[in-house]
Write a structure and sequence with these properties.
6 helices; RHH_8; alpha/beta; Arc_rbn_hlx_hlx; 5 strands; three-stranded parallel β-sheet; two-stranded antiparallel ribbon; Arc/MetJ-type ribon-helix-helix transcriptional regulator; single chain
Length: about 140
């Protein structure tokens, strides 16, 4: 049985957004042996290459389901940057944002916890969220 644990990146102010997210999985000894055999035979460059390929194959296999779900849920695909100016504009208009992202959502380092709470009604991230610990704590009850 495989179990995945997402390890959140700690990107500080001015740092580049990482191109990938690290995960940890637990595999049975025999499954891991098969992966290592395929790497040793040169089918894959390394374990990570095998795992990325397997994941992409499964995503492709279920493309119809995911496409319909993304459309039905009105989810933004890819990178979603949420900045102070956008949130201040929403606050000035009295709007609460419902943000849905499949990919990476980043909340700018200049966004205060108060501004985030005043303007983000719900935040659904299928993938990774990068935000300061204070903003994460302020939105804890709104994260889906």
């Amino acid at each position: 049985m495989a179990r995945a644990q997402v390890l959140q990146s700690q990107a500080g102010p001015g740092s580049r957004v990482p191109e990938s997210e690290k995960i940890t999985i637990n595999l049975g000894h025999v499954d891991l042996g098969y992966v290592d055999l395929l790497v040793a035979e040169g089918v894959y460059a390394n374990r990570s290459d095998f795992i990325r390929t397997a994941i992409r194959n499964q995503i492709g296999r279920h493309a119809d389901i995911t496409k319909q779900s993304v459309e039905r849920r009105s989810i933004e695909l890819g990178l979603c940057r949420i900045g102070r100016a956008e949130l201040e504009a929403a606050r000035a208009e009295g709007r609460m944002l419902d943000i849905r992202v499949l990919g990476l959502a980043t909340i700018g380092p200049d966004v205060t916890p108060e501004l985030a709470r005043d303007t983000i009604g719900t935040l659904t991230v299928l993938g990774s969220l990068q935000a300061s610990p204070a903003v994460r704590a302020a939105l804890a009850d709104r994260l889906r």
